[in-house]
Amino acid sequence: MRNEFEFIRNIKEQYGLNRVGDDCAVLPKDSKTDLLLTTDMLVEDIDFRLDWMRPESLGYKALAVSLSDIAAMGGTPKWALLSIGIPTTVWKGRFVDKFYEGWFALARQHRVELIGGDVSRTPDKIMIDSVVAGEVRRGKAVLRSGARPGDSIFVSGSLGGAAGGLALLESGKGDQQSGRKQKELIARQLRPTPRLDVGKYLTRNNHATSMIDISDGLGADLHHLCDASSVGARIEIERLPMDPNLNAATKERNLQFALSGGEDFELLFTSPRKKLFSSQLPPITRIGEVTSNAGIVELVGEGWERALPRVGYRHF
Hints:
- By secondary structure, the chain is of the alpha+beta class.
- Helix content is 32%, strand content 26%.
- Strands 7-9-6-10-8-11-12 form a seven-stranded mixed sheet, with helices on both faces.
- Strand 1 and strand 2 form a beta hairpin.
- The longest helix is centred in the first third of the chain and has 18 residues.
- It starts with a helix and ends in a 9-residue tail after the last strand.
C-alpha cells in the first residue's frame, strides 16, 4: 500500500505542483519579503490522546507544529488560521476555552496574530487544522533542495526525547507519576519547542544550504532532504546528540527513538561550514556529511556501516 509521501509525490507530478514539497509554500509578497504558508492537521487518537493530553497542551502543540515549519524555512511567523472540529460532549465543557488558552500562550510568545478560522461539530473525535503564515527576506527561504556534496549535516538540540516521552505516556506514566527526567521527556512530546531562533540565525547569516524540521524522525526526514537535493548522506552514529533524559542503559532503544520516533521538532540542515555555535542558541551538532550517492543514506559506527532505511512515522 502506498504511503502518504508517495501519494503527495504522485499528486505533484500529475498536476505539476511546483510549490509543493517544502515545510512551507513560498509565495512572493513584496520587494523585500516572501510569504511563507504552512498547514498541519491533528486528529484525536492518531496525533494525540485525551487521556494524557490536557487541552492547554493540545492548543500549544497545535500551534507549535506549524511554527516549526516556519522555523525550517528560516522565517518569522506572523498570522494564523485555526479550525477545530469538536464532538458535542466535549463542546459542553471547558475543553475548548482551555485549548485556546494554551494556543494563545504560545502565540503571544512569538507575536502571532489569529486572523480567522472555523469551529464545527464532529461525530466523536476532535480534529484540528492549523494554518500559519510568516515572512522571510526575499529569496532567502531555506529549501530542502539546496544540499551539495561536501556540506556538513547539522542538527539542533537533542534527539529521541519526544519519542521517549510518548513511550512513557503509552505505558501509563503521566506528569504526576514521573520523576524529573521523565517529566522533561513527556514535556518534549506534549509541548515541543519550535526552533525559530535557530532558523532565523541560519538565514540571517546565510549558513544553511538546505533545511527541514524533524517531525517524522531523523531517518525519514533526512531521506526527504536528500531526495529533494538529489544527494546522499553519511551519518556518524556517535555524533548523534541523544536527549540526556533518556535511559543511558537502553542505547539501542534510544537510537530507534532518535531515528524513527519523530516529533522532536529540531532543525536538520546542511551547511558548507564545519562548525556552528552561538551562545544564544541551543547546541548545534555536526552529525555527518552530504555525499554524491543520491538516495543513499549511510549510518556509520566504529568499524561498521549500514544503510539507514526510511524509518519514521507514517500515517499509512
